[in-house]
Batch of 2 targets.
Target 1
Amino acid sequence: MKKVFLFLLVMSILAFSFAQEKAKATLPSVEVRTLDGKTFNTKDIQNNGKPILVSLWATWCKPCVAELMAINDVYDEWQEETGVVLYAISIDDTRTAAKVAPFVNGRGWDYKVLQDINGDLKRAMNVIDVPFLCLLNGNGEIVWSHTSYAPGSEKKVFELVKKVAKGEEIKN
Amino acid sequence: MNFELRIMRLFLLAVFCLLPFCLSAQIRVGSGTISGDFSFNGMYYIPDSLIGAREVDSKVRGNAWLNLNYTNGGFSTGARYEFYLFPLIDFQDIGYQGQGITYFFADYKTNFIQVTGGYFYEQFGQGLTLRAYEDRNLGIDNSLLGGRVRVTPWKGIQLKGVWGIQRYNFNFDYTKRNDNVRGLDAELALADMIPKLSDNGVTLTVGASFVSRFEKAEDKMFNIYIDTLQYHDFYNNNSIFEFTPTDRPNVIRVQGVIPSENIPQNVGSWATRLNFGIKGFRLEGEYASKINDPNLSNDYIYKRGEALMMSASYSMKGLGVSTSFLRADNMDFRSQRDAVPAYAALMLNYIPAINRQYSYQLLGNYGYASQPNGQIGAQAQVNYQIPRRTKIGGRYGTDITVNYSRFHDIQKTFVPLSDTIGTITGTEGYTSKFFAFGKNLLYQDVGFDISRRLNRQWKLMLMYNYINYNMTLQGKPGMINGNHVGFELTYKINDIHALRLENQYLIIPKENNLDDKDKGSWMFMLLEYSISPNWFITVSDQWHFGNEKKLHYPNGAVAYVFGTTRLALNFGKTREGILCIGGVCRAVPASFGLGLSVTTTF
């Protein structure tokens, strides 16, 4: 039994000691689907040097939908001001995957929507629960990420997007 | 101090050791990066005979895991440690108990090829033949240990090959296993290859898959009770089986041995699929078939299995319409023929329930569960947005969802005694007309919801559903015929503080022949106060007011979120179902106690 905890501790200490510098992590290269059924690699997510938001969500997740609805209400203003693009990547599995396109269009969302049907991207990004939102700078580096949604937190997200659009550094 | 407490304490220590480095986000090693996640869900159980929260042998229990991944260019590797020695009771109930390195892999990827060794997850098409996946909140991990190759020889063509032994909970002695799985899958994106299609805005993808399961056959002792009214003349009377009457009416006991030479060691399953789209219209479908696979879930019959899943949808801005059809017959497909049908362990394929998935408590309690061995049904859903800045739609628009779904068992005609299949001694069991609905309604649900932001501060959602839920889905008698009404109101005090109130009623008429636990109407109420983006304080109560016992299931929770780390404490009573607290959703056990949850992604 003790070995187990030793292992855990050693793993965490190792990782801790590796923490010499903050990595500029990028999105992992994982194959997901577009709404029209084509294969799309997440490393191809880009926005001509402008900020990118990536949201992992699901049609059955209320806070996820609330967050995307709240952003949708101000999305055109965000885009005008910063040129940001939001990729809404649904983790709906086969059970609800076919309903994602009607769901998104029915709500009139203008996001770029992708589907991670067997959780491959979710796993590669170490996401435990959705919603999970992260912000990428113009070079595709993840500069901020957050889990869960509380009404109003989209304001803070926009502050960060504006900073990134201006090329400023941000703290997570 | 007892052993469990000591372990829990050590775990907490490990959590706090991890926290600082979680805060430092992703970590760079050389030119690669290390990332990972950690989760702990613990509970102190208090017995409560009123709600049926049983006395458990160790009061302090918890599930924990740690994932570490290393990525460097096209190369990645990783491992997961899982600690479920004293798991939450619902995990223990499904046999999910143990600890160890449950997952490790090495993967190399270029534009042309991807090679994976170790454990991997994979899905072919819609998953009717193969879906190795995980859902840790539900205790499902059907990963394969072996190898996988994915090749993209030409743009638009993808080929996959897998070989592996499926994970079975915490049984790691793979040398003792007599079963393995092999699979091939090919997918052609025709629109990528035929410019005429893509020029006309057409997307067309076709695919096919083949999966074969091997399991060494041994003489099978056979001892089951069958209902002669339902299964009359069910088994081939070839003197292998002995039929004895029992003291229960219409129930006989069937005993005997199926000799190993009569049991197919290799079971093949194949599927073809299509995905077609033009403009807003989309058609998707997959048909799968499985050859004779006598197993515990189908009472060892030799009938061929088949499944068809189709969906058609049309959407344009502001309107989405989707319809789906599903039929599954004898399609429970597992790594081992004696796997327990009630659990998801060793499941090779995935036959989903295609009804609307609700995240509201009372509907979640009676959510339809897929029946891979016999179900036929359809679902239709319309999403419509009354445009914003119109008289009816209001400034922010109004979203309407209308939904209908209905599922039956399949029609069955049991075959006469003398029928055998080829040279195999065994029975086909029954025949079934493909598009015929069986006489038993399993689930029906019709309803709508309307959601509207009234102004900058207030948002309102109203909903109504009528559901029929056949309690045989939970192995109980009776049928729930209920009206579900509810609302959700969000009041944004300012950009930081917000209140959310949910109130729902599930009205179930008294005359139903229901189990005492389900008899009578329910009410659910939840109030959440959030301080963006860190704090969530929630109180809720589920009240079985239509029942003589008038039980309450109160709950209080506080969650603190910073970045990708979430800490939550909750105290109260819960029924099994999906509960969303503090901005995330997860499955929760039926219990009473004090819970602690720590999750982080780094």
Note: Residues 62-82 of chain A form the longest helix (21 residues).
Target 2
Amino acid sequence: MRNTYLRELYKLAEKDKRVLSLIADNGMIVYDEFREAFPEQYYNFGISEGHMVTAAAGMASCGLIPFAYTIGSFLAYRSCEFLRLDVCLQNLNVKIVGIGAGVTYGYLGPTHHSTEDIAILRAMPNLTILSPATPKEARVLVNYAYEHDGPVYIRLGNNLPAELYAEDMEVIPGKPTTLTEGKDLVVFATGEILNQAKEALDLLKIDGVSAELISVHTIKPLDEAFVLEVCNRHKRIVTVEEHSIFGGLGGAIAEVMAENGNGKKLQRIGLQDRFAKGYGNRLEVLKANDLDGKGIYAQIKKYLQEA
Amino acid sequence: MYEDITKEIRKDIMVTALKGKAGHLASALSMAEIVTALYFGEVLQYDKDNPNWEGRDKVILSKGHASLALYSALYRIGYLTKEQLHGFCQEGSLLGGEPKRGDIPGVEATTGSLGHGLSFAVGIAMAEKYKKTLNRIYVIQGDGECQEGSVWEAALSAAHHKLGNLTVILDRNQLQAMGDTEEIVGIESLKEKWESFGFLVTEVDGHDTERLIAVLQKDKRDKTERPRIIIAHTVKGKGISFMENVPIWHYRMPNAEEQIIANQELGITKEDLL
């Protein structure tokens, strides 16, 4: 995903000299090619995330298009007020790119996890939030972020997720994608954990349960009409995210359901009001928190029995 | 020759605050000469008819709470009408206690939360340098504000990226909200600190307009890759005897009795209050 982002950024910087790449000392080797090709469009701010975000706002106020990139947790938490006042309040054309979505940095633990970022940033006015799950989504959404005039947060994993889109399937920014049809329940997922949700659905299929799988790559603005139509059509509704169950995708879907009197029982799968436990690679940490394919499968099974 | 303008600015600060029943008077009064020098001392490049002129120099009021001084300057160069100025903090007004970019011509950044202005200005200075313009960027910063860590992140960055197009004017009035900066969390020695961060430092009497202008104009002429800071030694509440150097005036508005004295000292007449 990181490489997809960098490839697209390279192309954008090549065609548009307003595009700048900002990093906070996080991008060894991977940025070499960019730096060599466009030295004037590359700024390393050092270990200074808040400053980078605000300086990006200053650059955008002069008509440039900065993409400020570092680990998502340092952007969403440490830079929070800078993002709020200098980017969002002033509605400036800054792209904030948070790498290491969810528990990607499994070895490092919660200091490097982005597991509350959507909740915090979803409340920021003017901010578009994009959360790609597959390389194709990342490719389309990075370009969409460039074209969109306004603040954008791109939540990126840096793994090599499977491409769940068929070649002829489109990613439409702003509109969730239905990846598989199904009649027994619907699962909304966002980001790379879509792959684990897909694994869970494959297991459910063996049990004879047919599920609809939807990738919500645009968290904000959320296509409420689409979400509501799907929720009205299904009796059982599940959300899956590599994030706290509070304020993220599950929270957003719950808001749409409740406000429209949908009245159905929703299951939010994610971190249950705790920091992720355990160390290891991403998949090991997901497993330790019941968020690997089998863990998600078991949680959905339980829900189906209760619902 | 600049005394008359500075006098009008101080009057504007008081009258505008009276109209809006709000404002940080003392913080604005300390920088009346600073805005006089910038806007009326042939320092800033700006277009009276087009606030968004590409070739303009930019001023960022990092100590946003002193907006009354900035608004007065913007009024006096023609970016605001008297009605707009006197609408300060009232219903339907564009002018809030803290300046908001986009709402008000001549306001280059929304400020109010301290420790943001210099970072924002660093971004502008980088952008102007990247675009190879000759535009200069000025930041008016508070002294208490130097307690914010983000100021020093931005300072490191300005020197590292060789932002010779950036000048900080530090309003060194010695006081922050609750008292003397050195009693709250000491920031001295500022000269040595900024020098060690890579800035060219000049110390001046911040109420000597001609001297401020001379330093700012020299800054424009001297080509250097180092960012500059002018430490302007000022008196908080300058111009109103009972406010000078008294911390409580960071917040307070005068009562009726005090108002009479303030009006006398600033030369505010009944006509000014209309």
Note: Chain B has eleven helices and seven strands.
